[in-house]
Amino acid sequence: MRRKDVLDLDDFSAEELTEVLDSAVSxxxxxxxxxxxxxxxxxxxxxxCFYEASTRTRVxxxxxxxxxxxxxxxxxxxxxxxxxxxxxxxxARTLQALGADMVIIRHPHSGAPYLxxxxxxxxxxxxGDGWHAHPTQGLLDLFTVREKLGSLDGKxxxxxxxxxxxxxxxxxxxxxxxxxxxxxxxxxxTLMPPGIExxxxxxxxxxxxxGGNGATxxxxxxxxxxxxxxxxxxxxVVMALRIQKERQDAGLFPSLREYSRLYCLTRARIARAKxxxxxxxxxPMNEGIEIAPDVAYGVQSVIEExxxxxxxxxxxxxxxxxxxxxDLAV
Length: 330
Ligand code: CP
Fold this sequence. Notes:
Blueprint: H1 14-31, E1 45-50, H2 56-67, E2 71-76, H3 88-97, E3 102-107, H4 112-119, E4 123-129, H5 135-149, E5 156-160, H6 167-178, E6 182-186, H7 196-207, E7 222-224, H8 228-231, E8 237-240, H9 246-249, H10 256-263, H11 267-270, E9 278-280, H12 293-296, H13 303-321
Parallel strand pairs: 1-2, 1-3, 3-4, 5-6, 5-8, 6-7, 8-9
Helix pairs in contact: 1-5, 1-13, 2-13, 3-4, 5-6, 5-13
The structure holds phosphoric acid mono(formamide)ester (CP).
């Protein structure tokens, strides 16, 4: 992998995405072994900086690093020198001086990982920054769909909910469309980023087309559809996003009951998608608001597999950033 940092998926080619996904297949094989530990990152120090709450991402990065035999240090805002007013740049310089080889950062402010990456010689992986991006969630979502459906090419993927504030949606859109899927975004107009179809189309054109690296598929990579019943028709994948309840106080939708009536993934709605369509959610879920419990835990749900796959995908990414190759056994 010829990059120092992973800050979003907007600059990943189809080949790079495929390299990570192929490598994650090998990592998943490692995770099925009785002893899950392999040596590629022995002697390396990985620092997990989580300045915002997390369960899935933080734990899976820690497990991934330990499975690769790295030494792992965890930092949270509380208890670190951030409480004494240390700036993010000073923290980055301190980590550099302490010999960090890789820094994983989650931060409430969009762009914070870019600032850290500029300061550090070490690799930086964005574990979620504000509303902006969550590239490793995007990669594990790609991996889960590819593992279940064989390929992303030509698949219809519906993402429903608060797209405007969702870093997961933004990274997923780049990943899915670069690998040739069509994404349909659904949600209240107040929670939809204006002009998103055009922005993605222009970004893909700059990268060389939908499908990445010179592929020239002409179908619109992203469409917006406000009616969920229509959006899910013939979908291969339906993904619900977490609704952030504080958005109601900001007047962005009238009530949770109204939101749920129009945008909750129910059995009746999922029945309109393709037979056997995958149901996804990045977590944490508000059951009964954006997703009905019988859908979240039903036979079509791959939500727990998304979490499990997060470890393999993060192992693959760290291994490749440290100079590993996807065609070599670990
Ligand atoms: N999907 C996700 O980022 O979950 P956490 O906030 O628990 O890490």
